[in-house]
Amino acid sequence: MSLPLLLDHLKKVATLGQVAGIISWDQETMMPEKGATQRAEQTGVLAGLIHQLNTDPRIPEWVAAIDEKEISEFDKANIREATRDYNRSTKVPEDLAQTIAKASAEGQMIWSKAREAGDFQMFAPALEKLVQLKREEAQCLSNRQDNLYDALLDQFEPGAKTETLLPLLEELREPLVDLREKISEKPTSKRFMGHYPASKQLALAEKLAKQLGYDFDAGRIDISTHPFSSGGSGDSRITTRTDEKDPLNCLYSTAHEVGHALYAQGAPEPFLPAAQYCSMGIHESQSRFWENQVSRSRSFAEWLYPEMKSYFPDMNISSADEFYRAVNRVETGFVRTEADEVHYNLHVLLRFELERELISGDLEVKDLEAEWNKRFKKYFGLEVIDVKLGVLQDVHWSVGLFGYFPTYSLGNIYSACLDKAMLIDIPDRDQKIATGNTTQTLNWLRNKIHDKGKLLSAEDLIQSATGTTPSARPLIEYLEDKYGTLYDL
Amino acid sequence: MSLPLLLDHLKKVATLGQVAGIISWDQETMMPEKGATQRAEQTGVLAGLIHQLNTDPRIPEWVAAIDEKEISEFDKANIREATRDYNRSTKVPEDLAQTIAKASAEGQMIWSKAREAGDFQMFAPALEKLVQLKREEAQCLSNRQDNLYDALLDQFEPGAKTETLLPLLEELREPLVDLREKISEKPTSKRFMGHYPASKQLALAEKLAKQLGYDFDAGRIDISTHPFSSGGSGDSRITTRTDEKDPLNCLYSTAHEVGHALYAQGAPEPFLPAAQYCSMGIHESQSRFWENQVSRSRSFAEWLYPEMKSYFPDMNISSADEFYRAVNRVETGFVRTEADEVHYNLHVLLRFELERELISGDLEVKDLEAEWNKRFKKYFGLEVIDVKLGVLQDVHWSVGLFGYFPTYSLGNIYSACLDKAMLIDIPDRDQKIATGNTTQTLNWLRNKIHDKGKLLSAEDLIQSATGTTPSARPLIEYLEDKYGTLYDL
Fold first, then answer.
1. What is the pLDDT of residues B354-383, one digit of tens each?
2. Which residue of A has its CA nearest to B36?
3. What does the DSSP assignment read for B238-292?
4. What is the average per-residue pLDDT within B170-199?
5. In 3-state terms, what secondary structure has residue A452?
6. What interface predicted TM-score (ipTM) does this complex get?
7. pLDDT for the residue numbered A144
8. Residue A226 clears pLDDT 80, i.e. is over it
């Protein structure tokens, strides 16, 4: 009787998590301005209830009474995840959890003001406090006091350790710097110019989403300041945004969020911990795959260019090939979210090293801006003159998200691993993609990744899908090959 | 210490109620089709949690420990309502509550199919079951076994009793039948003809809402099959619908929902039981007031007609006076929701008597269709030939809503009482309304009704606002006066 009781309980937690997701989606897309105060209250009450359910003392009792030999792999994973959530939730005292929640809400507000004012020192005390609190949290969570960062990382990338992640990510640095330097000596490709009406961008975004396999009966697209995806299974929504001078922002943020949403729409039933996404790295691999390996590919340009042309007859790009070059334009810039595939991971590496040092105590918050600027100069060759485009550009640290950044690069690494394996299984994939047919691509990901939910660790999932251990090599090869051809290196 | 603990608890319940309201709004306006299954689950989990909080055994302990002499009127009302909710929630066994919830969900589905098929007998067994279950529920709730109906009524109109409601509502019958008959001998006014684009109707609806005082920073208008209002305070949303052949549907359903929403936006802070709406009758008095006493008035036609004309230059109505006549066209019909002010309460009286007899056992479900048709013929002079426009027209009974219908007529009665008192306090109100200025009107309702939340019973609230006991006389006089002039009686 313990297993059904446990599963019932877990279902309840997961369902409340969905509710929290809906009201958060509503907050970003629909909520009127004056609803903010009551919405904060609602979010807090739900978080409190979820915490209460996650720390229910019956959980370990139920788990102890279950004979693991008699149950499915899926339920074993449910038990593993329930135990994991129970441990994480009970190890951090409620006082500390609430202090962190409050400091995060305040942190974001102060960060937002400091960014507007272009003044890092205005933000420093709040960040200082958050670093201290996250260190305390990590101490509660960690069994190894020598690497607090891992305890934070584990929240987003279960089971990941700095000692394995670091070499994986650092392997990217040299080849990327090399590639970047070579490209910088070549002439850059054409930019999109002109005016692109928002309503047409949205219509095209919808068409693109459908073409990639996004099920509109199980989702919807709305507008928000920062694009995001939310929900799961039959209700997996995405948002996008438009910039009338730049149609690529809407187009590729849509492709990115569709990638997340295809993963969510493909989640196994019923909605229990083992059916949830494997890790943030895997989630990001899905978004990046559809954004880059599919939607920024030379093949897909054959489908996408004529579509673009039909929505924007006046656009200054006049062939599929020119389109392909324009959407893969490489240029060194200050901002991570605007970075091309060549620069993106270099931005992540910078943040990964800085946040590790902040948490370990090797770097003090007061020195963060100077260190950022120094290393940015070293890695990107550019002098940071505006802190808004420097250390204040990302929201993450202001809301206590330490250990999140590396999952972006993991996503890129994993997507390239999947791409390589998929091309062996489906040799004519790119011919299909050139006609807009992505069915086989989606089915492959459904079978290898989506159907698996959280049964395996991220590493094991990539291993099972590709037949080899995750490595940065496929990404390096993919980038060298793609940009080598594009820039005639 | 008991009071803060109790208030904290009540705040939590109210907050979860708001969350339930948001996901229900989302379901009607935004949710993709395939989200239905998980949404049902989410709604169920929230209802369960709310029930659990409402039946927390600490509630009566906290209440017992509070010294009522030392606290505010507002908190006395909070305690009264907490006790009321606790009693209602604990008196009905959870098994029965769940059976009713399930039977209601099924009932609505079967009703919907039976209505489509035009077959009452298809629906009869489900209704039979619901009547039986609601009788059981009423028995649990009632201290007086001789009037089960009151226990159901009390859910929507706290403290109301059939013995006071019946004479109040029945007083309407004779004058209304009389008025109806006199009007039927006169020529009817002009109908709206032509085509009214949905987008223009929505733009006008928004303009109307603003003009009536609806705060768009604390709400929004969307489309749904059946218009409704939801939420409260800083987040009070409404929906509307459009029919391109009939602009009045969108216009007046918007005015109606705006009336509800103005009440909700004016709710006192903080959001605790005493800050919630007084009763369904009072809520309906607000919607009907803005729909009828304001938006269907001769004065407001001076503002509304030119607006209509600017949105629909081709409309077949050519003066404010003709507009006023057209929006107050009286015609005997089968459907309550399409009824004019003269017929509306006669529709309610029919349902009120039938549902009392169903609950008392004086009428059996198998005879309901025949009884409906017989009495409809008697009261309206029309033969019901289509059950879809007869006993199957309303969703209420199919979801177990017995005791709800009379609150519609109470709303009409109360709105006329308020109208009469307001005109004494603001003698030039109608001149103001003729220019579109409704500020004084709204302020009067804010002071007399909205600010009071649930401090008083509906009866006492009307008494305090108008200086006299609620009576049907103001409504009868208002209708006789208005339609006497309109139809030259």
1. 999 999 999 999 999 999 999 999 999 999
2. A234
3. EEE--BTTBHHHHHHHHHHHHHHHHHHHTPPSS-SGGGS-S-HHHHHHHHHIIII
4. 95
5. helix
6. 0.93
7. 67
8. yes
Interchain proximity B220–A26, CB inside 8 Å = no
For chain A, how many structural domains are there in total? 2
Query: How high is the mean pLDDT of chain A?
Result: 96
Mind giving me the DSSP string for A187-251? Answer: PPPPPP-S---HHHHHHHHHHHHHHHT--GGG--EEE-SS--EEEETTEEEEEE--BTTBHHHHH
Q: Is B302 a catalytic residue?
A: no
Q: Give the pLDDT confidence of A329-381 residue by residue, as tens digits.
A: 999 999 999 999 999 999 999 999 999 999 999 999 999 999 999 999 999 99
Name the active-site residue from A81, A137, A257, A355.
Answer: A257
Is B167 found in the same domain as B127? Answer: no
Q: Do B217 and A34 touch (CB under 8 A)?
A: yes
Cα B400-B402-B408 angle, rounded to 5 deg: 125
By residue range, what is the domain housing residue A108?
2-147
Q: Are residues A210 and A139 in the same domain?
A: no
**Which one of A147, A182, A207 terminates a domain?**
A147
Please check whether residue A218 touches B, CB under 8 A: yes
Last residue in a domain, options B125, B147, B169: B147
The DSSP element (H or E) to which B221 belongs, if any, is strand B221-223
Specify the CATH number for the domain of residue B451: 1.10.1370.30
The one catalytic residue among B157, B257, B302, B459: B257
B288 vs B292: CA distance, rounded Å:
6
> Per residue in B289-325, pLDDT tens?
999 999 999 999 999 999 999 999 999 999 999 999 9
pLDDT of residue A269: 86
Query: B207 and B187 share a domain?
Result: yes
Put simply, whether B224 touches A (Cβ < 8 Å) is no
Are residue A179 and residue A203 in the same domain, yes or no? Answer: yes
Residue written as tokens 């309550």? B336
H or E element, residue B222 = strand B221-223
Assess B271–A contact: CB distance below 8 Å, yes or no: yes
Closest CB from B15, B36, B41 relative to A41 = B15
- Contact (CB<8Å) B22/A23: yes
Tokens, residue B259: 């009336």
Q: What is the mean pLDDT of residues B479-487?
A: 97
| CA end-to-end span of chain A | 65
Q: Residue B154 has which token pair?
A: 């009390």
Question: Residues B84-126: pLDDT tens digits?
Answer: 999 999 999 989 998 999 999 999 999 999 999 999 999 999 9
Q: Do B245 and B140 fall into the same domain?
A: no
pLDDT for B448-480, tens place per residue?
A: 999 999 999 999 999 999 999 999 999 999 999
Reading phi first (left if > 0) and then psi (alpha if -120 to 50, else beta), residue A208 is in alpha
Number of other CB atoms surrounding residue B227 within 10 Å? 22
Same domain, A189 and A136: no
Report the pLDDT value the prediction gives residue A1, as an integer from 0 to 100: 76
